[in-house]
Specification:
It is built from 16 helices and four strands. The protein has 368 residues and is of the alpha+beta class. It folds into two domains: 135 residues, no CATH class; 191 residues, Nucleotidyltransferase, domain 5. It has a four-stranded mixed sheet, sandwiched between helices. Strand 2 and strand 3 form a beta hairpin. Helix 2 crosses helix 3, helix 5 packs across helix 6 and helix 13 packs across helix 14. GO terms for molecular function: DNA binding. InterPro entries: Homeodomain-like_sf, HTH_SB, Paired_dom, RNaseH_sf, Tc1-like_DDE_dom, Transposase_5, WH-like_DNA-bd_sf. It holds the Pfam family DDE_3.
């Protein structure tokens, strides 16, 4: 079937006018002899962007669905101190492979547009507002209003079911059982402020020479009840692919296993990031007899005590207010190896409570 002819701007405006007058999608479709899906799409665009003109497009299918974009907006709006680069890193860590330019494009489009407030009852505008509320975003947030920051990602039904499956499997594990697990994760550290200023002419804001590089450091680390394990800092141009991850496992996980567990029974935890699930990585883990804790659910930072450890480490580093990336890296290494064993045992001993709370809340986030 060939591609349908694009509707003129006059026809689109007519659709919006009829919608504002209170006509239903079906009535508009019948009157103008236009598919109902096209009418719905045009009204959705108008409610979201305030216009009916054709927006720039690459021609390829978008990397992010409408639902993904709403979640991305929520993360950005609910965390006012977080940059677009950090949001991108969080998505990458969670296993969502999108480019930084895609993240910037989406956030640029939705930071400032205003939603229509004149839609009648049962309108698509109301439907969109309802959809936004379901992921925790008020319609007014699109206009730039900021809310209290939250750190939990919105959960899809698939996420919830995965969390329940995992927690029901391990609901009988005791704190002693969890003490046999080596937890791991990647996190991002950022300076308080870049402090960089430059002189530029009008119109040069987006030129490469006038754009500051993000002052941040990505870190992979692991720990168990026996204390912190190995730590490695990723270079700015590091790609988190299967080759990189196999090297991390070889150079950093294995030494931690030998030092902390030797011949004792242990389990290794990592999330479902693409590089973790790669065939070559799975084979490496099997060849080295690393028993992986299975079913680890996506979008579940609240279940990983590494989150608590990273939070503690970031506070310790931030107290010393590093002013450049070299200082930041040095402080991360310094503070990591001063973390008390009692502290990590406290984080890990909370696992049975986390598991029980998620089961009790039917998959919803726990308060840890």
């Amino acid at each position: 079937m060939g591609k349908s002819k694009e509707l003129s701007e006059d026809v689109r405006k007519r659709i919006v006018d009829l919608h504002k007058s209170g006509k239903s999608l079906g009535a508009i479709s019948k009157e103008l002899q236009i598919p109902k899906s096209s009418v719905q799409s045009i009204i959705r665009k108008y409610d979201l962007f305030g216009c009916v003109s054709t927006l720039p497009r690459s021609g390829r299918r978008p990397k992010l669905s409408h639902s993904d974009e709403l979640k991305l907006v929520k993360m950005f709006k609910d965390n006012p101190g977080t940059t677009k680069v950090q949001i991108w890193q969080e998505l990458e860590t969670a296993g969502m492979q999108v480019s930084l330019s895609t993240v910037k494009r989406v956030l640029h489009c939705v930071e400032r547009p205003k939603l229509s407030s004149k839609s009648s009852g049962g309108s698509l505008g109301a439907e969109l507002a309802k959809e936004l509320q379901q992921v925790g975003v008020r319609a007014s947030a699109y206009g730039g209003r900021r809310k209290r920051a939250v750190k939990k990602l919105p959960l899809s039904e698939e996420n919830i079911q995965g969390r329940l499956q995992f927690c029901r499997k391990y609901v009988d594990w005791t704190a002693e059982d969890w003490c046999k697990v080596i937890f791991s994760e990647v996190s991002t550290f950022q300076l308080f402020t870049s402090g960089k200023e430059l002189v530029r002419r009008k119109g040069e804001a987006c030129q490469k020479s006038c754009v500051a590089d993000p002052d941040m450091v990505r870190v992979w680390g692991c720990f168990s009840s026996k204390g912190v394990g190995s730590l490695t800092l990723l270079t700015r141009d590091t790609s988190m692919n299967e080759e990189w991850y196999q090297n991390v496992l070889q150079e950093h996980l294995l030494p931690t296993i030998h030092e902390q567990f030797d011949d004792d029974k242990y389990f290794f935890q990592h999330d479902g990031a693409p590089c973790h699930k790669a065939e070559a990585v799975t084979k490496w883990l099997k060849d080295h007899e690393v028993e992986v804790l299975d079913l680890w659910p996506e979008n579940s930072p609240d279940l990983n005590p590494m989150q608590n450890l990273w939070s503690f480490l970031k506070k310790q580093v931030d107290k010393q207010k590093p002013t450049n990336c070299d200082q930041l890296q040095a402080l991360i290494r310094q503070e990591w190896f001063t973390i008390n064993r009692d502290l990590v045992q406290k984080f890990i001993s909370s696992m049975p409570e986390r598991i029980a709370e998620v089961v009790r809340k039917q998959g919803q986030p726990c308060e840890f």
